[in-house]
Amino acid sequence: MSEKTASAAADTFPRLLLEHASVRGGSPALREKYLGIWQTWTWSETAAEVRAMAMGLHSLGFKRGDNLAIIGDNRPRLYMAFAAAQCLGGVAVPMYQDAVAAEMTFVLENANIQFAIVEDQEQVDKLLEARDTLPQIAHIIYEDPRGLRTYDAPGLTSLEALRELGSAHDKANPGLFDREVAVGKATDVSVMLYTSGTTGKPKGVCQSHEAFITAARGGVQFDRLTAADNVLSYLPMAWVGDHLFSYAQALVSGFTVNCPESGETVMTDLREIGPTYYFAPPRIFENVLTNVTIRMEDASRIKRSLYERFMKIAKRHGSDILDGKPVSFTNRMLYALGNVLVYGPLKNTLGMSRIRVAYTAGAAIGPDLFRFFRSIGINLKQLYGSTETCAYVCLQPDGEIKFDSVGKAAPGVEVKLADNGEVLVRGAMVLKEYYKRPDATAESIDANGYFHTGDAGVFDTDGHLRIIDRAKDVGHLSTGAMFAPNYIENKLKFFSHIGEAVCFGHDKDHVVAFINIDLTAVGNWAERRNIVYSGYIDLAGKDEVYGLIKDCVEQVNAELATEGELSHSQIERFLILHKQLDPDDDELTRTRKVRRGFIAEKYAPLLDALFNGGTVQHIETQVKFEDGRTGSIAADVKIADAKKFPAVAKVAA
Amino acid sequence: MSDTSNARKVGDVILKVDNISLRFGGVKALTDISFDVREHEIRAIIGPNGAGKSSMLNVINGVYRPQEGTITFHGKQRHDMDTHEAAEHGIARTFQNIALFTGMTVLDNIMTGRNLKIKSTFIEQAFWIGRARREEIENRKVVEEIIDFLQLQSVRKTPVSRLPYGIKKRVELARALAAEPTMLLLDEPMAGMNVEEKQDMCRFIIDTNEQFGTTIVLIEHDMGVVMDISDRVVVLDYGKKIGDGTPDEVRNNPDVITAYLGAH
Predict the structure, then answer these.
(1) What value does the CA radius of gyration of chain B take, rounded to a whole number of Å?
(2) A345 in helix, strand or coil?
(3) Does A152 reach chain B within 8 Å, measured CB to CB?
(4) How far is CA A129 from the centre of its chain?
(5) Do B148 and A265 touch (CB under 8 A)?
(6) N or C: which end of chain B has fewer CB within 10 A?
(7) What's the gap in Å between the CA of B105 and the closest CA on chain A?
(8) Do A36 and B156 touch (CB under 8 A)?
(9) Would the CB atoms of A149 and B7 count as touching at under 8 Å?
(10) Secondary structure of chain B in the HEC alphabet?
(11) Of the candidates A513, A631, A636, which has an alpha carbon nearest to the alpha carbon of residue A570?
(12) ipTM value
């Protein structure tokens, strides 16, 4: 345990909060930009507000074991609401603030919500709408009174009024608050996070104080976080990552959580705060890089050539310097010069100058993207976890960074692989249960206490875990070799010319792929080569484009050849689809995941041709246009072969 | 923006125009127009193109001087209004064609709306001494509250010339609100906007009215919007008043149907 973070005696979040209030009462706990100025709540102010809120809830009848819905953007008072519920032995249930009323109904009903603390009129409206069918929602407490002055619904109270109620209740019942906090146990459920429910109804994941505190302590020690660190919390509070980074770790280590002014100002706020610890999903890093690239293209020639020259140096030596590997003196000096001229100012513009540790997770990150941020000196790392494990299973240690692994098992976590490659996890951070779902709980936690993540992975020679696919998607070729379609598809999609890819090969003797080109990127490429085309179908059928994609596929094959067991699943034949896969045609989910089974049925003739050695196949497909009309398109789709590489002897464990 | 206790409740008549006639040479822009505006209400002026709607607004805040008629504002009857006097008595307006300082930031543009509230001298301001500093802080606070109210935080420091049209319109409204008006004249606040921008603007107009009790007189083309948000509507056609009443009354007025709605 690093020196003065929090003593081991504080084993619930309310106790941690009270301890910070006494140890570092004057230090900032929360900040929010309001009216253009960063407003600060110190730890003692935070504790006082939480106390008033908790007592207010108590006076309204909120009792031990009740669930408190929390809905809104990342606001200090909503974070306090988590603690307020927990002080009384209640459970915080954060919900996604952009869900519509109908989507909220399920969770509100499932969690039997009677109390809700929400941000503003928008959320109040949704809850009042939900109340038509769920009369149990008795108390709705709102933070921002704008637009609500004319509302006259029973049980609608402002947070201001709740705090006043609480202060009065506190005076009338001295000692009540401390007693309530003292009764709380580490094994009590502290928070319930609902899984997104891509398959079936959302499930409430019950996590105890102990689980999140263990996960947070582990992370805090692992990355040596202290009370002096700063984070910007801008990801939904209902998401496990935000709960770990902005709530649990903040309460364990005592660092400052900063809330942006609004969703649109995050980039400006990032610059002003200069967080030392940062988390973002890959798509945010991708947006940042795209913006940098576009702005550099518009920059003057001198700036552009400086940027290009020094980015080359950064690419060669940046990561090694960051990892503490040996780099020659000259190159170090060049890098230092680049830091003064390019990397430093760039990081400053992005608000990333002070970042000590940055994490990304949630989706595969492209190697180029990952290397870019590391090369300019941002310690970007990957982690692996899920809602059921408090987002804490594997972390990449400093100096041992690989873009295709998620790191080693985090402190206090036991990770092993099942026979089918599924990742199994055991430790204090594993969920207590799914709320009211003993069947689902029994299904995912086995007799030995291992949680079945549903992800398939392999360990490499250094003991790093590599997540390759969802376990249920992993198949086997007829030769018995492992086949992880999603893993190969992701590798293909890292090429900017490839928009979508779908791989098949389960129970077959080789792997084939459907490919969608990225119309913008390939269109651009074609224009520069004076290749004339009329639209997607035309471009997709060009021999030159097939050549371009073939290169990409063969590069993927070359990579796969080095990856032990996966070297057998190199792509033998591929085709470029004559239409773009589209959620409107049910080929992709709304979150743009490929629906492999549906696609295999719909394009069965193409798939047969791929496996049976045809070279051209005619196909006619129904399409839905945006205005709802349907039409059909026909095309003769060419099929190409790709070169396979012999497996390189670098066997994975 | 300090007075937020004005719960919305339509009160007494605060502005009354009687028998207003306005001519430009031989062109009769307005003929014998009379109507009134009550405190805290949303009053719409509608009519086909060239009906004299903007002229009417310009008469109210003193840009045009009518040849005949009287204007009674806060109980004081006068022949015409003076622009300065109008502003000092709490009348603010926005324009049909956006009239912002395009090179200045959103923040600075809204700050100009506080001009009347600044009492410090040029010298004090130049050297940032005496009242200047205190006033600037006070005014900035009011402006920040408006920025928060109209959700302009993300463009606070952006020059107006770089903003999309819908946001510019919102900045105009913000500048008008910065004067803490008791009456707000809006000249086609939703012209040229897309559906979403219109919805936002409606919301902001209603919120302004509810939160600050500001009386609002607006000109609008979009009938749906007018019927939804206004308490009473005046209908002009060829400079003459042909209808006056609640949205429902106006909608069923045969003259209005022939002159305006019937044309569709």
Answers:
(1) 19
(2) helix
(3) no
(4) 30
(5) no
(6) C
(7) 14
(8) yes
(9) yes
(10) CCCCCCCCCCCCEEEEEEEEEEEECCEEEEEEEEEEEECCCEEEEECCCCCCHHHHHHHHCCCCCCCEEEEEECCEEECCCCHHHHHHCCEEEECCCCCCCCCCEHHHHHHHCCHHHCCCCHHHHHHCCCHHHHHHHHHHHHHHHHHHHCCCHHHCCCEHHHCCHHHHHHHHHHHHHHCCCCEEEEECCCCCCCHHHHHHHHHHHHHHHHHHCCEEEEECCCHHHHHHHCCEEEEEECCEEEEEECHHHHHCCHHHHHHCHHHC
(11) A513
(12) 0.74
Check CB contact of A150 with chain B, cutoff 8 Å. yes
Residue contact A264–B7, C-beta within 8 A: no
Minimal Cα–Cα distance from B149 to chain A, Å? 9
| Placement of tokens 């253009």 in the chain | A36
Residues of B in contact with A75 (CB under 8 A): none
Q: Do A149 and B207 lie within an 8 Å CB cutoff?
A: no
Burial (CB count within 10 angstroms: exposed 0-12, middle 13-18, buried 19+), residue B135: middle
Cross-chain Cβ contact B145/A35 below 8 Å? yes
Contact B154 A268 (CB under 8 A): yes
Phi/psi of residue A383, each to 5°? -140, 170
Distance, CA of B18 to CA of B23 (rounded, Å): 16
What are the Cα distances from residue B30, in Å, to A504, A609, B72, B91? 76, 79, 18, 21
Nearest to A265 among B7, B8, B153 (CB): B153
Q: How many residues does chain A have?
A: 653
Digitized pLDDT (tens) for each residue of chain B, 264 residues in all? 444 444 567 888 989 999 999 999 888 899 999 999 999 999 999 888 888 898 999 999 888 999 999 999 888 888 888 888 888 888 998 887 788 999 999 999 999 998 877 777 888 888 878 788 888 889 999 999 999 999 999 999 999 999 998 899 999 999 999 999 999 999 989 888 888 889 899 989 998 998 888 999 999 877 788 888 999 999 988 889 988 999 989 888 888 888 765 554
Residue of A nearest to B151 (CA): A262
